[in-house]
Hints:
Layout: E1 7-13, H1 18-27, H2 39-45, E2 51-57, H3 67-80, E3 91-97
Antiparallel strand pairs: 1-3, 2-3
Amino acid sequence: MLKPGGIFCFLENSKxxxxxxxARKKFxxxxxxxxxxxxxxxxxxxxxxxxxxxxxxxFFTAFAKSGILHxxxxxxxxxLVPFIPQNMRYVMxxxxxx
Length: 98
């Protein structure tokens, strides 16, 4: 519970794209049981807060866990993610002030 003026910081895996959804179901043990939320759902959860800033990042790095592939995925993310809609990115983060 936050006092008025308190700051809530969050970092959450988001529902992301259909490709992410498919990969989680296929390759992640908890992918079929975990409930990933959308940015709109997070906005609804944070509706009681005065100020809310939600951002999203990552797309390609979700598919490359380590090594040279991960390095290339990070490069692609830096270049291409600004052109990918926020609701298709796989991590959301932000702050909300009560």
